[in-house]
Design brief:
11 strands, alpha+beta, 2 domains
């Protein structure tokens, strides 16, 4: 997770696999986490674990540095019970507690399996992520879970991917497969 700003104990960052979302930034401090939309207007997406005072302080920091945050990078992560999200993926992760449990990575097969805390799997391709595609098997195996399993980091590769991004990609790909492989019209006899 490329860090954009570290200020007053708050870490502002983004995930590289959330680029299809509107511009936003994640913020974390200890076990607390949040997400703030930077466009079309500055608005809290969610905040988990922050006090009301901390939320106001974060909003002030973002408002005062919005241009810098936009230029430096976009996208983020979360984890709090103060402001809830309407996003179904956020609800799964931050309110229902869905987490990455472990990964299975096999470079030769271009295979990347994300094993979730509920026993489900998300299948992805290593080649979908530029930095991972350029790494060897040994480098790929040097990952660590971040923020209790809501993200995974490869320190040497400087690559961070979020559970949110994995779920969004899997949902999108599943729906595209469904549209491409099924007849949209059903005949009832």
């Amino acid at each position: 997770m490329p860090r954009v700003l570290y200020f007053k104990g708050y870490e502002f960052f983004f995930y590289s696999n959330e680029g299809s979302e509107p511009m936003h930034i994640h913020v974390g401090k200890a076990e607390a986490i949040g997400k703030i939309w930077l466009e079309p207007k500055i608005e809290v997406s969610y905040m988990y674990g922050f006090s009301s005072r901390e939320i106001k302080e974060i909003q002030t920091i973002v408002n005062e540095r919005v241009v810098y945050l936009k230029v430096s990078g976009m996208n983020i992560f979360k984890n709090n019970k103060n402001i809830s999200s309407n996003d179904q993926i956020d609800v799964l992760i931050y309110e229902k507690g869905l987490r990455i449990r472990t990964l299975y990575i096999e470079k030769e097969l271009d295979l990347f399996l994300i094993i979730l805390s509920n026993g489900n799997l998300i299948k992805s391709r290593i080649s979908s992520f530029k930095k991972l595609a350029e790494a060897d098997q040994e480098e790929l195996l040097k990952w660590e879970l971040k923020n209790g399993g809501i993200a995974v980091r490869w320190e040497k590769l400087d690559e961070d991917l979020s559970l949110y991004g994995f779920i969004k990609e899997a949902t999108f790909n599943s729906k595209i497969d469904q549209i491409m492989n099924k007849n949209p019209f059903t005949v009832v006899a």
